[in-house]
Amino acid sequence: MGELTHFDDHGNAVMVDVSNKEITARTAVAKGRIIVNADVMEAVLNHTVKKGDVLGVARVAGIMAVKNTSSLIPMCHTLAINKCQIDFEVDAEAGSIQAACLVKTEGKTGVEMEALTGVTVTLLTVYDMCKAIDKNMEITDIFLEKKTGGKSGDIFNGKDLQ
Questions:
Q1: What is the pTM of this model?
Q2: Which whole number is the average pLDDT over 125-133?
Q3: Is 9 tagged catalytic?
């Protein structure tokens, strides 16, 4: 088990000092999904949700969340984001919308929290835009699929959501 790095010797919360770390290319991909009923799925696919283009707005919200992660998660460093991409896989039959958030940077610390925040806000936005149709949607299966770069190397969690 790894050492907890966000606490000092006295148990106080601290931001990790990354000043001596190497600048490397870093990427992270996080995934999650929202389970919706047939009415929500039909409205999303047919662009009839009164608040607008659900997946388009959710994509923008996820990108904005990535860029603002350090404002939301207290010990996250502010990072220059080189790329953020939100993609969707819609399974109308299963009532499932999967979101994937890819984040890239070159820096001294990784973008795992940015990817996880991005995918979570993306799914929350789908919920918000569709809650007038159904409040029983379920956000589930949020996880870090992979990360590259940095001292700990590459990590892949090939969890299959299907």
A1: 0.89
A2: 98
A3: no
